Amino acid sequence: MVIVHARVQCKPDKREALLSLVNGLIEATRTENGCLSYRFYEDTEVQNDFLFVEQWETKEHLDTHSKQPAFLKFQEQAPALITSLDIQSYEVHS
């Protein structure tokens, strides 16, 4: 299993646009093969700070996700909406 944590800091005046973009991404991603969980959380202590928490069956599933239309749309539009993006991924073996 692969777990991804992607922290996003959005521009204060772009919050609603980011949330709208993310909602479309979440809806599409949750139907993808190999997606075990795809969540988006807001930090309660840091304003406009968000965290994607993703679980994928395999790295190949995650790689396929990065080529999907909804992800490509997010990748194209997000730079105008955010100030930072930090992505960490972890491979978990049981």
Which tags fit this structure?
single chain, 94 residues, alpha+beta, four-stranded antiparallel beta sheet, 3 helices, 4 strands
Task: State the separation between the terminal residues, measured CA to CA.
Answer: 9 Å
Proportion of residues in extended strands = 35-45%
Chain-averaged pLDDT = 97
Tell me the helix content. Answer: 25-40%
Number of helices: 3
The H/E string reads EHEEHHE
From the helix content, strand content and strand pairing, which structural class follows? Answer: alpha+beta
Sheet with the most strands: spatial strand order = 2-3-1-4
Assembly state (oligomeric): single chain
- Count of individual beta strands: 4
Structure description:
The structure is a single chain. This protein is α+β, with helices and mostly antiparallel strands and 94 residues long. Helices cover 33% and strands 37% of the residues. It contains 3 helices and 4 strands, in the order βαββααβ. A 4-stranded antiparallel beta sheet has the order 2-3-1-4. It is globular.
Helix-strand blueprint:
Layout: E1 2-10, H1 15-29, E2 35-42, E3 49-56, H2 59-65, H3 69-77, E4 82-91
Antiparallel strand pairs: 1-3, 1-4, 2-3
Helix pairs in contact: 1-3
Task: Give a brief rundown of this model.
Helix content is 33%, strand content 37%. It is α+β, with helices and mostly antiparallel strands and 94 residues long.
